[in-house]
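agent> step 3/5: call structure_predict on target 'Helix-turn-helix transcriptional regulator' (Fusibacter paucivorans).
agent> reason: downstream docking stage needs a structural representation; sequence fetched in step 2, passing through unchanged.
tool.input:
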Amino acid sequence: MENKLEEIRKQHGMNQEELAAVLEVSRQTIGSLENGRYNPSILLAFKIARYFHMHIEDIFIYKEDYNDDDKA
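tool.output (status=ok):
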């Protein structure tokens, strides 16, 4: 899953530590989210979206891989 968290955070003039404090998670969690090493729980995704007054889909982009073999 891709995300725009780093871009959005920077647009709001925040560093990782500030965002982590607001969301009550570690700075490492924010870094891992931004680098794509970690996908948020649905609860955390909602908290992030609500904080930035955005839809989850505007921050986290799910791209499903379709394979020709999967077609029925």
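agent> step 4/5: record observation. The radius of gyration is 14 Å.
agent> proceeding.
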